[in-house]
Automatic annotation (TrEMBL), chain A:
<keyword id="KW-0689">Ribosomal protein</keyword>
<dbReference type="GO" id="GO:0017148">
    <property type="term" value="P:negative regulation of translation"/>
</dbReference>
<dbReference type="InterPro" id="IPR005822">
    <property type="entry name" value="Ribosomal_uL13"/>
</dbReference>
<dbReference type="GO" id="GO:0003735">
    <property type="term" value="F:structural constituent of ribosome"/>
</dbReference>
<dbReference type="GO" id="GO:0003729">
    <property type="term" value="F:mRNA binding"/>
</dbReference>
<dbReference type="GO" id="GO:0006412">
    <property type="term" value="P:translation"/>
</dbReference>
<dbReference type="Pfam" id="PF00572">
    <property type="entry name" value="Ribosomal_L13"/>
</dbReference>
<comment type="similarity">
    <text>Belongs to the universal ribosomal protein uL13 family.</text>
</comment>
<keyword id="KW-0496">Mitochondrion</keyword>
UniProtKB/TrEMBL annotation, chain B:
<dbReference type="InterPro" id="IPR001648">
    <property type="entry name" value="Ribosomal_bS18"/>
</dbReference>
<dbReference type="InterPro" id="IPR036870">
    <property type="entry name" value="Ribosomal_bS18_sf"/>
</dbReference>
<protein>
    <recommendedName>
        <fullName>28S ribosomal protein S18a, mitochondrial</fullName>
    </recommendedName>
</protein>
<dbReference type="GO" id="GO:0003735">
    <property type="term" value="F:structural constituent of ribosome"/>
</dbReference>
<dbReference type="GO" id="GO:0005763">
    <property type="term" value="C:mitochondrial small ribosomal subunit"/>
</dbReference>
<dbReference type="GO" id="GO:0070181">
    <property type="term" value="F:small ribosomal subunit rRNA binding"/>
</dbReference>
<keyword id="KW-0687">Ribonucleoprotein</keyword>
<dbReference type="GO" id="GO:0032543">
    <property type="term" value="P:mitochondrial translation"/>
</dbReference>
<dbReference type="Pfam" id="PF01084">
    <property type="entry name" value="Ribosomal_S18"/>
</dbReference>
Length: 198, 167
């Protein structure tokens, strides 16, 4: 059947996938991206068969990390010289190179594989939405995002907020703005400066 | 009368005098109808006839949900499902300047108030709630605050029902 022949071409051809990393966890998305890089999603997968695909990732600048991880998650490096150890927090690495965290996450995920370097060459990372047309014209498929993007309060209209049922009834004689602090001319001396805002 | 006595729980001189002095205007009226008789003037022109009418102002028709929990707490029913992404629920427990409303107003039980604080913090730091910053005092440089906490401008998410969120 001619149909089977085309299906075989599609399996063995190197297809290109696109992935939107906006508001996505880098470690969870690395888990999904590396399956496409290795070709694990294909029925003909073999470790030594070179059946992996290309993956194009954009919006890596806008990835989301869990909880306090921007501050606490560290990247380590050692030059093998004496005193050559260095480490940097995730947010500092992200300032330097906004594609670095997702790249290292995929790199670590592929640890123990001989063809790790060739697989990493098929991962194309872009910090923003700008992708060169040479790469974008190859893309034929989209990878589903790992997390749903939460909706902000600003995204809701005022009508939607008002029509949402209240959970409790506000007492009529309570003044909501009774605790409001006036904007004093001199700064508040009792709280430290770091905690006065935020 | 009964409410004003109930409010003065602490026996201070100020509260003691309050019970016997003149009551506020609100409770002085003896009418059985509603205290606030706010009306809105409506002018309707039909040809040569103009009708000026005082229409009774109706309060905002907000649907208040029935509380089914035996504790009387509005959040107890949702303690296994409330997350930081439910902004429409969380914003009801905030005053317009971003402060958490006290328990005697909202009727939230002690444990759910404690959990609500954690969830509100998560929702705020994930950027789902607006930034309730007070206005800066005079002679304060806003750049001083912005240069610290550089990691806060990045996106953050939270794991539901995990160690960070012990519900």
């Amino acid at each position: 059947m001619a149909h089977n022949r085309v299906m075989q071409w599609a399996v063995l051809a190197r297809t290109w996938w696109i992935y939107d990393a906006n508001q996505q966890c880098p470690f969870r998305s690395a888990y999904r991206l590396t399956t496409y890089l290795q070709g694990l999603h294909k029925p003909v997968y073999h470790r030594h068969g070179d059946v992996g695909d290309h993956v194009v990732v954009f919006n890596t600048r806008h990835i989301a990390m869990r909880g306090e991880f921007w501050r606490t998650y560290k990247h380590f490096h050692h030059t093998r010289f004496a005193g050559g150890f260095s480490r940097a927090s995730a947010y500092r690495v992200h300032e330097e190179d906004p594609t670095r965290i997702l790249e290292r996450a995929c790199h670590n995920r592929l640890s123990g594989l001989d063809n790790k370097r060739t697989l990493m060459k098929r991962l194309h990372l872009f910090p923003d939405e700008e992708i060169p047309e040479e790469i974008l014209e190859n893309v034929t498929g989209q990878i589903q995002q790992v997390q749903a993007i939460p909706k902000k309060l600003e995204d809701y209209s005022q009508r939607e907020i008002d029509s949402f049922p209240r959970l409790f009834k506000m007492p009529e004689d309570y003044d909501i703005e009774s605790y409001k602090r006036e904007n004093r001319l001199e700064p508040d001396q009792h709280t430290s400066k770091a905690w006065r805002l935020k | 009368m009964a409410t004003s006595i109930k409010a003065a729980k602490a026996v201070t001189l100020k509260n003691f005098i309050k019970t016997f002095t003149f009551l506020p205007n609100k409770s002085r009226c003896l009418s059985t109808t509603g205290i606030t008789r706010a009306k809105k003037i409506q002018v309707i022109k039909t040809g040569s006839v103009t009708v000026v009418e005082g229409v009774k102002l109706e309060e905002k028709s907000q649907v208040v949900r029935e509380i089914k929990a035996p504790t009387g707490c509005p959040l107890c029913e949702f303690q296994d499902s409330l997350t930081y992404r439910d902004v429409l629920i969380l914003q009801q427990f905030l005053s317009p300047d971003g402060k958490i409303l006290p328990r005697h107003v909202t009727g939230v039980c002690f444990t759910m108030q404690w959990k609500l604080q954690n969830i509100l913090y998560q929702s705020y730091s994930a950027g789902l709630l607006p930034k309730y910053c007070p206005e800066l005092p005079v002679n304060e440089d806003p750049t001083h605050y912005l240069k610290n906490y550089k990691w806060r401008k990045n996106n953050v998410y939270y794991e539901d029902f995990s160690i960070e969120n012990p519900l």
